[in-house]
Amino acid sequence: MPVHLRPPAAPAAALAALCTCLTMTAHASETPDTPAGPTAPTPPGEQPVGPDGRFVNLDGTTPQGFDALWKWAVVDKLTGRRRQSPKTAPVPEVRPDAALLATPPGPGQPARLTWLGHASWLVQLDGVSLLIDPALGDGLPGGISRNAGPGLSTADLPPIDAQLVSHSHYDHLDLPTLQAVGAPVLGGLRLDRLMQRNGLFATELGWWQSARVRGVKVTFVPAQHWSRRGLFDGNETLWGGFVIEGSAATVYHSGDTAWFEGFAEIGRRFPGLDAALLPIGAYDPAWFMEKQHMNPEQALRAFGALGARTFLAMHWGTFKLTDEPLDEPPVRVEAERRRLGLPAERVRVLAVGETVEVGGAGRSAHPAGPGP
User: Is 335 helix (H, G, I), strand (E, B) or coil?
Assistant: First the structure.
C-alpha cells in the first residue's frame, strides 16, 4: 500500500474550564515546550497516512479486512474450526494498599505501578498519579463480562492528574470510566472530538510528540495496531503507546500492538527503560491476531528489543476476547523466560491489584504493598 506523509490536523479547541485541572505542555521532538489546554500543541512530526487520509502503521499496513473477520468470527465458529476454551478462568488477585496509593511517591523516589487488569494501570511518580487505558467497569459493550478485577474501582482511586488513552478500541477507551474519573485525557491525534462530545478535556499527540503533566514527561510512541469505534471510522484516530519519564524512573506502556521493528527505535530513543508494560494475551488464532497483537514469546522478544530492565505483563485474564484460554499466557511467558535464561525478577506477571516499584537508586522492580 502506498504511504503518504502529511502534517496532522490541529486538534479542536480545548475546553478552557477544564484546562486548569492540568498543568500540561506539548511539543514535538527537539522543540520548546508550548502551552496545551486551550492552545493547540505544537504539531508533531508528519504522520503516515494512506491514500484515504486515514492513519496507517509505520510499515503502511492496515488491519485485517472484513473478509478475514467474517471467516474468524462466523465461518470458523460455525464449522467448529476455532479453538475451544472456557469463558472464565482463575486469575490471581490481591487487594491494593489504598493507604499506600493515596499519595504518589515524590521526585527522586521509585515509580509505583499498580496493575488494575487488562491494559489498565495506575502509574505514580514525582507527585503525579496517571491512569493508563482505564477500563474499570463490569464489562465491555457486546456482552463481554469481566473475568477478574478491576484492581480498584473508580471510587477507590487516588486523585488522578491525567488519563492516558492508547487508542479508541472499547477495551482501552472506556468512556464510563473516563467520565467517572473526570481527569484530563492524553491520547492520539483526532481523538479530541470524541472526548469533547463526552465532556472530557483532551490533549492530542502524534507519534514522538510529548506533553508534561507537571514534572512528568509523557511521549506518545508508535505501535503496530489500528483504531475503530464504529462501522465507518476505522483508523480515523491515531493509536500508540506511552513513555513516561520522571526524575528517577522511565516507564513504557505499549498499548495494543503486534510485534514490529519499532520496538528497537523506542529503546534507542529512550535508553534504560525501567519497566516495559507489554501485552501477552489475545493472540489466538495467530493467522488473524498476529497483525494486531503479540503472543507471549513475541512480547519477550519485544522486551529484548526495547532493552528494558523489567518486563511487566498485561492484556490477559480480564476479558475473553480471543480463542486461547484466559490463563494460558502466563504459562507461556514462564516457559519462554526459562528458555531465554532471563532472571525471574526481571520478568513479572503481577496479580490484578498488585503494586511494584521501579527505578530509584536500585533501578529494579520490587514489591510495594501486598503481593500474590
Answer: helix
Q: Cell 492496515 belongs to which residue?
A: 62
Distance CA 323, CA 281 (A): 10
- Which of 73-77, 188-192, 201-205 is predicted with the least confidence, judged by mean pLDDT? 73-77
**H helices within 235-275, ranges in order?**
262-269
Cβ(101)–Cβ(354) below 8 Å: no
Question: Is 99 inside a domain boundary?
Answer: yes
Is 372 part of a structural domain of the chain?
no
pLDDT the model gives residue 363: 63
Q: What's the structural domain count of the chain?
A: 1
CA distance 123 to 25: 19
Which residue, among 235, 217, 215, has the nearest Cα to 225 in the 3D structure?
Answer: 235
Using 50, 70 and 90 to split pLDDT, how confident is the model at 64?
Answer: confident
Structural domain of 352: 4-367
Residue whose C-alpha cell reads 506511552 in the numeric block: 242
Backbone Cα Rg of the chain: 19
Terminal-to-terminal C-alpha distance of the chain: 47
Beta sheet of 162-164, edge-to-edge order: 202-205, 185-188, 162-164, 128-132, 120-125, 111-117, 355-358, 366-367
Per-position b or e across 240-259, b if 16+ CB within 10 A of its CB:
bbbbbbbbbbbbbbbbbbbb
| Non-local CB neighbours of 150 within 8 Å, separated by 6+ positions | 116, 117, 120, 135, 136, 137, 352
Q: Binning pLDDT at 50, 70 and 90, where does residue 364 land?
A: low
| Helix (H), strand (E) at residue 328 | helix 328-340
**Burial degree of 35 (CB within 10 A; 0-12, 13-18, 19+):** middle
Q: Write down the pLDDT at residue 32.
A: 30
d(CA 366, CA 148): 23
CATH number for the domain including 235? 3.60.15.10
Q: Any residues with CB less than 8 A from the CB of 237 and at least 6 apart, and which?
A: 55, 167, 168, 187, 188, 189, 190, 191, 194, 227
